[in-house]
Specification:
single chain, 327 residues, alpha/beta, eight-stranded parallel beta sheet, two-stranded antiparallel sheet, 39% helix, binds zinc ion
Length: 327
């Protein structure tokens, strides 16, 4: 066997296909997302996004970063009513105003919301057109609480829903799965698609916790799968919920595209919830989701940042998630 070590031969050209996929993970962000100003002491602050982008740039120095475009009104109208678009885009506040107790509209928020939703559009186009294999959108404000007509829970537009509707309406996909592992239930995403059998929505989350929805009994048109976890639950319960209930539902659905609402606030360090996940739990679930994406969706995955309010947890969890996303 040692003979091989001393007699290297140039590899046949076809073996070069063993190099990692030439359609890499693409990253999307925009400086406007930092200017959405929620005010002092608000948990959903620009430092979150700074931490995520810095950590990803350090961990993946060769990665391709794209500046997110603005979503168009027509792309937003697929999931939102005109009254919400007008509230976010045409209020033009001179100072911060509260849309509800948690949700702020600042002078720069409209542009941030357009860029966050636009990242969802561009990332979806990239993976469905084959220029990227997977995409991660490092954006804010987050999106999964926003319903068709109401901004809530720090969310203005529902970015992941905009992505799913774009995949359906612009690309003609008939089966799109959204996996949401943010510690809060993605009530907005569920409400937008609960009568849409072409979109499968799966969520693990703490319950009770804001927004106090996401019970197992909420099944929509049979396309909704909720796995509530009690306060204090950790990686073992989290993995069991996905392994026994949510991942098999994705497998049976055979999605043509897998979307991820990637909130990292189920981490044990997070100040807003009481689940006890570690970064490795996010890596595990991401790998499991990729197995299904490879099986059914040609490996196509778009992941979007949702919540996560401890900066150290955000850094290590987003890096663990994206490292597992890499081919
Ligand atoms: Zn959350």
């Amino acid at each position: 066997m040692s003979r091989c070590l001393h007699a290297p031969r140039s590899a046949p050209r076809y073996l070069s296909r063993q190099v990692p996929d030439d359609r890499p993970v693409h990253f999307y962000t925009h400086p406007a997302c930092l200017a959405h100003d929620t005010g002092p002491a608000h948990a959903e602050r620009s430092e979150r996004l700074v931490a995520v982008v810095q950590a990803l740039r350090e961990a993946f120095p060769a990665a391709t970063w794209h500046e997110a475009p603005r979503a168009s009104r027509g792309q937003l109208q697929r999931v939102h009513v005109d009254a919400l678009l007008a509230q976010v885009l045409e209020t033009h506040p001179d100072v911060r105003i509260q849309l509800d107790a948690d949700t702020v509209l600042s002078p720069a928020s409209a542009e941030a919301a357009l860029r966050a939703a636009g990242a969802a559009i561009a990332a979806t186009d990239a993976v469905l057109q084959g220029t990227a294999r997977r995409a991660f959108c490092a954006v804010r404000p987050p999106g999964h609480h926003a319903t068709a007509d109401t901004a809530m829970g720090f969310c203005l537009f529902n970015n992941i829903a905009v992505a799913a509707a774009h995949a359906r309406d612009a690309h003609g996909l008939e089966r799109i799965a959204i996996a949401d592992f943010d510690v809060h239930h993605g009530n907005g995403t569920q409400a937008i698609f609960e009568a849409e059998p072409r979109v499968l929505f799966l969520s693990s989350h703490q319950l009770p916790l804001y927004p106090d929805s996401g019970f197992v009994e909420e099944r929509g048109a049979g396309n909704i799968h909720n796995a509530p976890l009690p306060p204090g639950a950790g990686g073992t319960q989290f993995r069991a919920a996905w392994q026994t209930r949510l991942l098999p539902a994705i497998d049976a659905f055979r999605p043509q595209l897998l979307l991820i609402s990637a909130g990292f606030d189920a981490h044990w360090r997070d100040p807003l919830a009481q689940l006890q996940l570690q970064a490795d739990d996010y890596a595990w679930l991401t790998r499991e989701l990729l197995v299904l994406a490879e099986r059914h969706a040609d490996g196509r995955v778009v992941s979007m940042l949702e919540g996560g309010y401890d900066l150290d947890a955000l850094r290590e969890s987003s890096v663990a998630h994206v490292a597992a996303l890499a081919p």
